[in-house]
Amino acid sequence: MSAVGGSALEVRGLEAGYGKIQVLWGIDLDVAPGEFVTVIGANGAGKTTLLRALTGLIPIRKGTASALGVPLRGRTPAAIVRSGVGHVPEGRQLFPLMTVRENLDAGADYLPAAKARAERNRAFVYELFPRLRERERQLAGTLSGGERQMVAIGRALMTDPKLLLVDEPSLGLSPALAQAVFAALAQVNADGTTVVLVEQNVQRSLQLADHALVLENGEVRLRGTGAELLAHPQVKEAYLTL
Q1: What is Dmax (Cα atoms) for the chain?
Q2: Which helix (H) or strand (E) holds 119?
Q3: Can you give the pTM of this predicted structure?
Q4: How far is CA 196 from CA 43, 109, 205, 217, in A?
């Protein structure tokens, strides 16, 4: 899992939504290879919609987006995954009647290049999440919320992504399990995979971020380094004040 040359993600003037409802307005985003970028914002700000548009789950209505040098607009989710973009969706979306091992292997089953490296990538997933090795023959539907999130991240890593998009991985997790998930994402990034994280745990996600942006009502309101946004008065008032 290594970084690539050029731009990992480039978005210009992106607009998207659902039916007659427009959610995103003129989003610009640049992510360099190997970066860890965090997107924060209140519920309904458009964070999940952004990732869904970038992964082909909803159409891009206006603007352009490219990942790893490949245009995304009009491409199917399967084609986007084949180009090296992994997606950990909100809500995990596992196959509950399949085992942990089967869920993981499903990430590589229809990707010849990833399938050829499945053993190596599975070993990496088990190194990140030793608990999954212990439970590899357990049905995913019987796992705890934290364990299911680990499987969801692991399944995306089995696609052998160069760019990983992660949606709300700490949602509903205990502080200890959330910390384990954040530590794993930091390790994935340190190993060379570019990460774009959508997350409501603002403190921890900005600590991890090289760069970050704040979405509000479908528009980018602030951007800067993770440290700059952690210290920004508006971010402190809106997201970090108890």
Answers
A1: 49
A2: helix 118-128
A3: 0.91
A4: 18, 24, 10, 20
Pick the CATH number of 9-240 from 3.30.1360.30, 2.60.120.20, 3.40.50.2000, 3.40.50.300: 3.40.50.300
pLDDT, position 71: 96
Return the residue matching tokens 């990983």: 164
Contact 45/89 with Cβ under 8 angstroms? no
Nearest one of 149, 186, 151 to 168, comparing CA atoms: 149
Going along 19-107, which residue ranges are E strands? 21-31, 36-40, 62-67, 70-71, 85-88
* Distance of alpha carbon 242 from alpha carbon 235, whole angstroms: 12
Q: What is the pLDDT of residues 169-181, one digit of tens each?
A: 988 888 888 898 8
Determine contact, residues 64/238, Cβ cutoff 8 Å: no
CA dihedral (235, 197, 18, 57) in degrees, to 10, reads 170
Q: pLDDT tens across 109-147, in order?
A: 988 889 999 999 999 999 999 999 999 999 999 999 889
Rg of the Cα atoms in the chain: 17
